[in-house]
What we know:
single chain, mainly alpha, globular, two-stranded antiparallel sheet, 18 helices
Amino acid sequence: MRPNAVxxxxxxxxxxxxxxxxxxxxxxAAEVVGAHVDALYPERLxxxxxxxxxxxxxxxxxPPGVVEQLHQVLIExxxxxxAAGGGRWRPYLMAAAIDAMGGDNCGYGPLLAAVEVVHTxxxxxxxxxxxxxxxxxxxxxxxxxxxxxxxNAGTAAYFAFDRALRLVPxxxxxxxxAMQQSFFGMLRAAHAGQGLDIAGxxxxxxxxxxxxxxxxxxGAVRFTHRLxxxxxxxxLMELGAYACxxxxxxxEAAARYGExxxxxxxxxxxxxxxxxxxxxxxxxKAVGEDLRNGKVTMPLAHAVALMPRAELxxxxxxxxxxxxxxxxxxxxxxxxxxxxxLDACRQEAETLVEDAWAGLEPLLSPSPAxxxxxxxGRDTAYRSRIA
Length: 387
């Protein structure tokens, strides 16, 4: 018997292993997780759901009209971005990890959905901070809604984890506390990474361009990616390990694998900033968006060791202050591609994932679920995607 009514909505299915996840397979996973997302962020907020959302005591009455208003200010901005789609690979990766470590993901629908809701909230905040106007092929939440409202709704989405944890199978208090500690530790790391990302690495890039030594700027960008993106996937793998009662060794190795996949995802996302992403004929990531903002990404950092100094200096001077015109950005993209910087990024991402998998695989009993987890990790890091 499943532990609660919310989880009966629709469990995440286990799939046969595949070395190449198809678009249809990923889409099906998104539909399944979507049913649980709807339970946390419904299409129409009812009074009972509003009370649960606000954690209201029984003796606190809701003023007339406030349920509808809460839907407008907390639910609609998040649903706007959720409805636009996205890969939804994070909850599905977590489901695969639970199965690979000997558990059964079917009891954890709310927690899997919360992973996607939290991620969506982070995208809403990120788009305001970056000034991005398109996300998942639709107007960013702060463009569709008021920026202040989008920021508030995005940060409020982080607390979906707390709501979901109350709906999953009961665990020992120490395990639930460990899951909470993992989640809040991730938030601390991710906010630090976002802060470093906003501040940028221009000083490190200036030094690298002047000296020809790429190590400092590469290290700085790697560390930022690890905090901003790697920590989030590390957390969901830890949560999966706690959920299924994995050993401490399995949990730590799974966490390292998740961190590698998340960091590799961000590295290849830097690559796709230069190539663009088209989904069903609609651009979901503008070509050179980071480059036009003067942001130091992994391709720029790798170019220090790969591009002639004079050419690198000229490129950096043209983009470092942001606001580069389309022609300048296009020339920069061509230069970074031809010097091999994009290939260096792809190789680094692949090495990260494969090395981490080598540490996890010996701790798992061979099964289709294990093969599926490996395939998903590789596919996540290397495929064309929308966030």
